[in-house]
Q: What sequence folds into this?
């Protein structure tokens, strides 16, 4: 059951504000608290040691009141208190005890020690390692375990690169004395083989989690608050002491482009029904360049269009020029300092793209590889108080490990990270 634990300790809140308890904030005015009530099992467990606190000293230092507030549901607050006048030494002992008890409560009050949203490379690794260390881990993936890299990124891309290179190998082979027979290529066979391999890898990712006793959910997950996650498939909520957001990125659909809806991204390129005869690829990054070479190698007539002067901006200069030249020699048409301004679908089914420099390019498919955006839309980050930048990327600390909280910036730590 969902539990949030909070503490208020009269006059000692600063002492208790160490790593284990700094997320527990005072919310109640003691004057409004009636008689002590013990509600939840963890709180009951906590009450016992508190009752065994050292006997009151004949010379009391100052009375302290430790008040634990445990809510079984958000908003349903129950409390109990321990009011013991004690010497300084006893008081310190009490504080240590409180800290220990609080740690226990915090650890057991949540359904999981760690909940991971997103079952890609980052999320699966975080979940598996934490689970292997004995943490109670839950993980939710809305599409397929393995994420972008395994399902629609690095892995299928590399398989397609290998497939595309055979045409050149066949040609080279003849120069080395081989006689290569009649060649043909079956796109559907490649797609099916790719699917088989990524399904195998997906199974390995899932089993890695399950074997380490992580609880695996096939569901979209959204944040309800800083410790609560809603599993959309079952409409259930679960709580966790810590939540890892590993939702990756999504291809920018470029919706300001007239006719963008006729275009595909790398996601669809892997699973096209038919191998196109011709393809226009927009973008000059590694995804655009790799797909241009893949489809060209598979026999497609490819045009690459890029707004910059040279493809692969920020890569090594010589390599950019060398690769550009090699691609053109192979037969890839490369248009630089130009962009697509519109895409129209003709009655025949093919697409006509018009460019800023006045080119008209007809192709079976237009693929946009114009960057990727943070996949944080609708995630509920604002409900958890997590700050994002203008692009929706979570603002993280210098170690790229912790998110900055919107509302707690001044209240928690000077850096604003919590
Ligand atoms: C075409 C392409 C080729 C690439 N090639 C390479 C390469 O050769 N080498 C390389 O190093 N990198 C490559 N990359 C990049 C690599 O894929 C990513 O860097 C890597 O996948 C990022 O991992 P991640 O775990 O952060 O995110 P992802 O792998 O994107 O995983 C995020 C997961 O979260 C899930 N998700 C999102 N929101 C929710 C939600 N609310 N609830 C539940 N689940 C959710 C998504 O479905 C996804 O499975 C390539 C990427 C692409 C697109």
A:
């Amino acid at each position: 059951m969902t539990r949030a634990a909070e503490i208020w300790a009269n006059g000692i809140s600063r002492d208790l504000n160490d790593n284990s308890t700094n997320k527990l904030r005072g919310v109640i005015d003691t004057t409004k608290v009636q008689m002590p009530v013990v509600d939840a099992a963890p709180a009951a467990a906590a009450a016992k040691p508190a009752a065994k606190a050292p006997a009151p000293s004949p010379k009391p230092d100052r009375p302290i009141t430790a008040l634990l507030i445990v809510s079984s549901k958000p908003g349903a607050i129950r409390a109990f208190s321990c009011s013991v006048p004690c010497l300084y030494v006893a008081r310190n002992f009490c504080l240590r005890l409180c800290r220990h008890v609080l740690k226990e409560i915090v650890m057991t009050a949540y359904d999981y020690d760690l909940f991971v949203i997103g079952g890609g490379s980052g999320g699966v690794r975080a979940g598996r390692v934490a689970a292997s260390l004995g943490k109670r881990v839950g993980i939710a993936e809305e599409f397929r375990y393995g994420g972008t890299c395994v399902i629609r990124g690095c892995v299928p891309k590399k398989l397609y690169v290998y497939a595309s290179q055979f045409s050149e190998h066949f040609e080279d082979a003849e120069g080395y004395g081989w006689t290569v027979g009649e060649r043909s290529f079956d796109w559907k066979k490649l797609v099916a083989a790719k699917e088989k391999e990524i399904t195998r890898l997906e199974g390995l990712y899932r089993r890695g989690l399950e074997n380490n006793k992580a609880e695996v959910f096939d569901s979209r997950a959204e944040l309800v608050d800083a410790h609560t996650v809603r599993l959309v498939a079952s409409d259930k909520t679960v709580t966790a002491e810590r939540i890892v957001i590993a939702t990756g990125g999504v291809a920018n659909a470029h919706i300001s482009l007239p006719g963008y809806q006729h275009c595909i991204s790398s996601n669809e390129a892997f699973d096209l029904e038919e191998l196109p005869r011709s393809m226009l690829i927009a973008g000059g990054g590694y995804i655009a360049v790799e797909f241009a070479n893949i489809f060209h190698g598979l026999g497609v007539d490819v045009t690459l269009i890029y707004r910059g002067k040279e493809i692969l901006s920020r890569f090594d200069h010589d390599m950019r020029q060398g690769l550009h030249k090699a691609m053109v020699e192979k037969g890839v048409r490369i248009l630089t300092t130009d962009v697509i301004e519109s895409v129209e679908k003709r009655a025949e089914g093919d697409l006509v793209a018009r460019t800023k420099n006045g080119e008209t390019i007809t192709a079976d498919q237009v693929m946009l590889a114009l960057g990727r955006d943070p996949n944080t839309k609708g995630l509920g980050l604002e409900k958890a108080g997590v700050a994002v930048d203008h692009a929706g990327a979570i603002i993280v600390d210098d170690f790229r490990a912790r998110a900055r909280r919107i509302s707690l910036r001044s209240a928690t730590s000077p850096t604003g990270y919590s």
Q: What stands out?
A: Residues 1-53, 56-81, 407-416 have pLDDT under 50 and may be disordered.
